[in-house]
Amino acid sequence: MHQADLAIYAAERRGIHDARRHDPGVVEESLQPARNRQLPAIFLRKGADMDVRNGMGLRPLGTSAAEFEQDLLSNLYYRRGTTVESASTQDAYETLALTVRDRLAERRVRTAAAQYAANPRWVYYLSAEYLLGKQLEQNMLYSGTDRIARIALRQLGLDPDEVTALDLEPGLGNGGLGRLAACLLDAMATLDIPAVGYGIRYDFGIFKQDFQDGRQIERPDDWAFQGNPWEFPAPDDQQTVFFYGHTEKDAAGRTLWIPGEVVFAEPSHMLVPGHGTDTVNIVRLWRARGSHSSFDLSRFSAGQYAEAVDEAVHAENISKVLYPDDSTESGRELRLKQQYFLVSSSLRDIIRRFRLRNSDWTDFPKKTVIQLNDTHPTLAIPELMRLLVDEEGLSWDLAWAITKQTFAYTCHTLLPEALETWPVHMFERLLPRHIEIVYAINEIFLTEVRNRFPADLDRVRRMSIIQEEPERRVRMANLAVVGTQAVNGVAELHSRLLADITLRDFAELWPEKFHNVTNGISPRRFVKMANPALSDLITEGLGGDAWITDLDRLAGLEPLAEDASFRLRWREVKQANKVRLGLGDPASLTDVMIKRFHEYKRQQLKLLHIITQYHRIKQNPGQTFVPRTVLFAGKAAPAYHAAKHIIRLINAVAATIDADPAVSPYLKVVFPANYNVTLSSLIIPAADLSEQISLAGKEASGTGNMKLALNGALTVGTLDGANIEIRDRVGADNFFLFGLDTPAALELRNGGTYSPRAYYEQDGELRRALDAILDGKFAGVGREVADSLLGWDEYLTLADYRTYVDAQDDVDAAWQDTESWTRRSILNTARSGFFSADRTVRDYASEIWHVTPVKVTR
Ligand SMILES: *Cc1c(COP(=O)(O)O)cnc(C)c1O
């Protein structure tokens, strides 16, 4: 914004502020784009139980293939402007998407009406990431149009597989955290909980991974280049977001923030349908736009094209890319800007929605619970304080009471050093008013700490929201705990460690604030859709498909584990899924490790086992071995060099094995590129063995472990994250346990005597494996990996090596008893119903959110 415009803007803001002092009800009209949208009168008149389409005089959408075909033709003609004869495949895809979407849009309208009429307590889920997965297949399933859509397409001479292949995955997240957000939204809709997810509509999602000479290379993911038919733009709900500038006091002593940059946040939403219900919630994603004056026409006319759009480009950079990982250093300020952008626009939208049916601020926490998915949206706490105190004129104390009651915080971290912090100087520059508010919150909070623990200065220093040494930084987790009514970890072990170690001081101060809500996954996405053949078999075995929304019913499969013909069919399904995946011999044991590359997850441990097995096969020609296909998939953060070395070494080992005819009949390593939700849905149903081998005490929960167990894979794993709860449920006999537990790992690491070299020297097989790498046996690749393991081995890989290899020998032995393995596979599925995201959401709803469903009726 030009200096002159900013000055006018500031004057305007001062004027509004003045007016508001006399009339706190004044809406910030001049800050808002023109809004002439009213709720349809029908919402107000009739409430929940009416057919909005009929009420509006519209023809109801049909449920037959013939009617679907008619609607396809009509959308092709009126919305794509073409005909079947001249339609491209892209035209056909977009038309199909719109026709499916129309069915859900009808439910969406009824949902909005029912929720509006109920004026319920809402759940607002704030997350910097959503890994939603492909939308077409899901939306066909949820709208019940899967079958008729295919028939209709064929009727029109179109190949359904060719058309549906154009559906893309919006990769708006990095991994587990973003996928959890998507699974929770799915479960909330399925359970009829009134909810909105808020996020950022990144132009570029998580990078596309490719391999060149075995090295990871990253390509941009321009996911919406062709447009995104699933998205409803809502420019009328545009919001204004401020950055930089300074604060000043008005005559009455109230604070006013005069921004130095103004950016518009333009929302669009995607539909989040529930399964087996008419509820369709939304996820609202914000995109940054330059303000109206950010295009400089005079410069453009003078031929300065780049300079003319400089400011707009600068503003729009905010939603340009998903940050590839929270651990990278680059672009720090832009990331903080993203966080505030998400929080500020979402809160304004939440308040707009609150005002539709409510007028008293004290009702705000009764009608609103805002769940913070990790610390990325924590700025929402000082932002709500700013809105309530500065803009709405509430007293500090009332605003603080409202704020604390409104928020809840999910912590996904364990390592104290991985908790998010921001330099105070950056905070001050970007968000001058928020730093004042954070200081004020901190002062009140630390007074409480001093009163409770007099003379414990060290505790006060630890708990302060501001870290003083070695650099002044804002501790986002401390702010998140102080400003919320509930804090939860994501698995039992994780929640315990949070309260005992990571956030111990806070748990001592407010024990009642700390909860556990064990993660879960969507049975729709990861069983029904990913594994249709197994789903059909389960449905047949249980005599119905109610398990899809009531996953505890899987327990009914237990007796069938004893039924030889059921076991045979179970194996046939697994076999067919391996054929469908098309990687490796379907008769071999399919051993999968699919997840982000991180040293704590220990792909390097799996690799040492592979090299050991390679040596055993080479050393014993003529002996037979259990044939295995080891499947890796996952991305490394672009700047995470240690993880990238591991990727490169895996590819080199895979090539060496492939080229060795003595080994390749028994061992194959495959590493398909670009792990994402789509690829996971192909791999998981084919897995026999699930690798969950992180160092105990490092993985908060894991959710890949749940997906695999539910699809009948047996786990080889440590006592980490939700592995513990999986083992408790499926039974120790059906889980291959190995490795140090958390106390032993902590003791070994912190004892100061851990020597990876001692393990190397004492274990011949381990030495051989590491020597092979050091001697350059794998195309000379991977010495960095071996050096790092022998030098420091942060994640105690070598300490767990022997028990891991022994556990793998147990796996081989167990695999040879086919009937027994199948029995255990069935029991893994039958006993994992607990890991449904529906259960997770029920836990949140009863323990933290205190919300009740709103049923959508016809
Ligand atoms: C489930 C999932 C994850 C999380 O996997 P973990 O094994 O729990 O780390 C990451 N990425 C994708 C694409 C997923 O579907």
UniProtKB/TrEMBL annotation:
One of its GO terms (cellular component) is cytoplasm. Keywords: Carbohydrate metabolism, Glycosyltransferase, Pyridoxal phosphate, Transferase. Its EC number is 2.4.1.1. It catalyses: [(1->4)-alpha-D-glucosyl](n) + phosphate = [(1->4)-alpha-D-glucosyl](n-1) + alpha-D-glucose 1-phosphate. It comes from the Bacteria. Its cofactor is pyridoxal 5'-phosphate. The modification N6-(pyridoxal phosphate)lysine is found at residue 707. CDD domains: GT35_Glycogen_Phosphorylase (cd04300). GO terms for biological process: glycogen catabolic process. GO terms for molecular function: glycogen phosphorylase activity; pyridoxal phosphate binding. Belongs to the glycogen phosphorylase family. Phosphorylase is an important allosteric enzyme in carbohydrate metabolism. Enzymes from different sources differ in their regulatory mechanisms and in their natural substrates. However, all known phosphorylases share catalytic and structural properties. Allosteric enzyme that catalyzes the rate-limiting step in glycogen catabolism, the phosphorolytic cleavage of glycogen to produce glucose-1-phosphate, and plays a central role in maintaining cellular and organismal glucose homeostasis. This is Alpha-1,4 glucan phosphorylase. It comes from Paractinoplanes ferrugineus.
